[in-house]
From TrEMBL, chain B:
Main location: membrane
Name of the protein: Sugar ABC transporter permease
Assigned protein family: Belongs to the binding-protein-dependent transport system permease family.
Statement: the UniProt record of this protein carries the keyword Membrane: yes
Gene3D superfamilies: MetI-like (1.10.3720.10)
Swiss-Prot/TrEMBL keywords: Cell membrane, Membrane, Transmembrane, Transmembrane helix, Transport
Membrane association type: Multi-pass membrane protein
Organism listed in the record: Yinghuangia aomiensis
Length: 321, 322
């Protein structure tokens, strides 16, 4: 898998012939001597190889997704053929119809969407306030709290399902809306597990906004909440969008809590745990599974593409500051 | 010049008391507030995190010191404090050591694979034209965005025994990839690498782009070869980012749950593909031994905390202001 990808990269490094040739590639464009022209030719071949390698890598990386969508659109007899073809002449929406109608994925899709939306909105609001506190103020345990948010990201969340299972069960006795088999319980735990990263990432965005803007607003007589809401919030909106992607993913992708908490009421399943039910070791309805997988992937993909630029810069901020 | 700013600084200030007054006003007044505004801002986060993160963490530790099985869970029998008994059972169990070993090997292989693919493609990205770069970025974004669950299902279908494309292409019809321990791990690992190489690729690419062209130009003018430039100039400048990427990968790959659980159907044939995470989960929810599961969770948390300590030190060294 990696060999077509790595070879053009390593070849100028390992082979002594191209080693010298690669040197001018870094800088100037104009050939200085007669020898320079030959090097330009070499460089063009190198560039060509690199381009080809990049395209191959892209095809390999995207292929599973292509296969997923393709298989979701294939009619049953093509899915169940022992010699699958990488295309289809008879695309059909039957698999989607079956998944959404018969298997109830429509409902699970809406459940997932509802949980993720609530988590994204609450997490953005809470993380925004916390990030402001941690970047704009100096107080006693600031560093300690920051380190705690960092450490919280490392905790193996799956191990916490054990105590959380009992916590949610007991909470259900007091407040039925957040007990076992409710969407409320999922919203709460996803919120808790998306916050540390959201705060950590937003911190970078808030820190990037110069103090002077708030200073100016203050001198103009704006109060603290006006400054937060009217000055800072719009400025870090792109960062908030990027952070939201990760909160969305935490909630949308979660498998372990959905599987553990939603045990009595099947109507409250979310997509990942519903997919597992679909997944039988030997007799898989692959067409249906691929259709459901496609339904599950598309929203994340759209979200990613929309905020892609901010996400990368946000990660840079979270990583480098 | 440096001499005047370092050692006689204090004397300097005594000599002309007018200077501090000139620069100082306004700034410090804002930072020292009587009303604990930051606490108000942190309150919502605390309200969520203390009961739903802090308390369960404490409970996890507590459970690991109790005898807590099915009867205790249903409330019939009170939980009994048993000290280190669970840990004694755990450390005396051969399976635990096997699982720990294979978790480390599996996570290590995933980290190496992710970094190799991610770094190679990051370097490749710096050498290609605009369109190939955009296409590769977009494909990587797709792999990144795919939920763990759908990644697992699609790869399972690709490698399916009878209907999978891979067996058909390789002419290995009827071969079950999940039957043997290490091929199964390798397949799960491939999915993990597929999911996580984009983060490494994009982060490292951004890091390489951030190296000023003048530095590379200077190296070139000094007659450094591509390899020397890479080793002596780029690598040291990328070290902070590399450290962070490595440690993040270690933490993620050590915790892989969904792919292992789904693809091996809860730990593989006779538990041959268990990793610590899945092992803890199965002990608790399949075998109803919640306290032993918690003990495994505690061991895992401690291992990850050690890695995190290294991470924080690396962050500090790279100049991150905490």
């Amino acid at each position: 898998m990696t060999s077509p990808v790595t070879s053009p990269v390593t070849s100028p490094v390992t082979s002594p012939a191209t080693k010298t040739a690669a040197r001018p590639a870094a800088g100037t464009r104009k050939p200085r001597t007669g020898r320079g022209r030959r090097l330009t030719g070499d460089r063009r071949i190198g560039r060509h190889l690199a381009n080809t390698a990049a395209i191959i890598a892209a095809i390999v990386a995207a292929f599973p997704l292509y296969w997923m969508v393709l298989s979701a659109l294939k009619p049953d007899d093509e899915i169940n053929s022992a010699h699958p073809r990488p295309w289809t002449w008879a695309p059909t929406l039957d698999n989607f119809r079956n998944a959404l109608g018969v298997s109830g994925f429509g409902r699970y899709f809406l459940n997932s969407l509802l949980v993720a939306t609530v988590v994204v909105v609450l997490s953005a609001a809470i993380a925004f306030l916390a990030a402001v506190a941690l970047t704009r103020f100096d107080f006693k345990f600031r560093t300690t709290i920051l380190v705690m948010f960092l450490v919280a990201q490392m905790v193996p969340v799956e191990a916490l399902t054990i105590p959380l299972f009992f916590l949610v069960r007991d909470m259900g006795d007091a407040v039925p809306q957040v007990g076992l088999s409710t969407l409320g319980s999922l919203m709460l735990v996803h919120l808790a597990f998306s916050l540390p990263f959201a705060i950590w990432m937003l911190r970078g965005f808030v820190a990037a906004v110069p103090d002077s803007l708030e200073e100016a607003a203050r001198l103009d007589g704006a109060n603290r909440f006006t400054i937060l809401w009217r000055i800072l919030f719009p400025l870090i909106a792109p960062g908030l969008a990027a952070t939201s992607v990760f909160s969305f993913i935490t909630a949308w992708n979660d498998f372990v809590f959905a599987k553990t908490f939603i045990i009595g009421n099947d109507d409250n399943r979310t997509l990942p745990s519903a997919l597992l039910v679909f997944f039988k070791p030997d007799e898989n309805d692959w067409g249906g599974i691929m259709a459901a997988s496609t339904l599950m992937t598309v929203p994340v993909l759209i979200f990613f593409v929309l905020v892609q630029r901010h996400m990368v810069s946000g990660l840079g901020g979270a990583v480098k500051d | 010049m440096p001499a005047t700013t370092t050692s006689p600084a204090r004397a300097d200030r005594d000599d002309n008391p007018g200077r501090p007054r000139a620069g100082a006003p306004a700034a410090p007044a804002r930072r020292r507030r009587r009303i604990p505004v930051p606490l108000v801002l942190l309150l919502p986060a605390a309200v969520v995190l203390i009961p739903l993160f802090g308390y369960p963490l404490y409970q996890l530790g507590l459970l690991s010191f109790l005898d807590f099985g099915q009867e205790q869970a249903s409330g019939g029998v009170p939980a009994r404090f048993v000290g280190l008994d669970n840990y004694r059972t755990l450390f005396g169990d051969r399976q635990f050591w096997d699982v720990l070993t294979q978790t480390v090997v599996f996570a290590g292989a995933c980290v190496v694979g992710t970094l190799a693919v991610g770094a190679a493609l990051a370097v490749l990205l710096t050498r290609v034209g605009k369109w190939p770069r955009l296409i590769l970025m977009f494909a990587a974004l797709g792999a990144w965005a795919a939920p763990a669950m759908t990644g697992a299902t699609v790869w399972m279908f690709l490698f399916d025994t009878n209907l999978g494309l891979v067996n058909d292409v390789l002419g290995m019809d009827g071969h079950n990839w999940m039957y043997d321990k290490w091929p199964a791990f390798a397949l799960v690992g491939a999915v993990v690498v597929w999911h996580s190489f984009p983060f490494v690729m994009i982060t490292l690419y951004a890091g390489i782009q951030a190296i000023p062209g003048s530095v590379l130009e200077a190296a070139r003018l000094d007659g450094a070869s591509t390899w020397t430039t890479f080793r002596r100039v780029m690598l040291p400048m990328l070290r902070p980012i590399l450290t962070i990427v490595v440690i993040q990968s270690v933490i993620w790959d050590f915790k892989v749950f969904t792919q292992v659980y789904v693809m091996t159907n809860g730990g593989g044939i006779a538990g041959q593909n268990l990793t610590l995470n899945v092992y803890a989960y199965q002990k608790a929810f399949a075998a109803d031994d919640y306290s032993l599961g918690s003990a495994i969770g505690v061991v895992m948390t401690l291992i990850l905390l050690a890695v995190t300590a290294v991470y924080i030190r690396a962050l500090r060294r790279s100049g991150e202001a905490l």
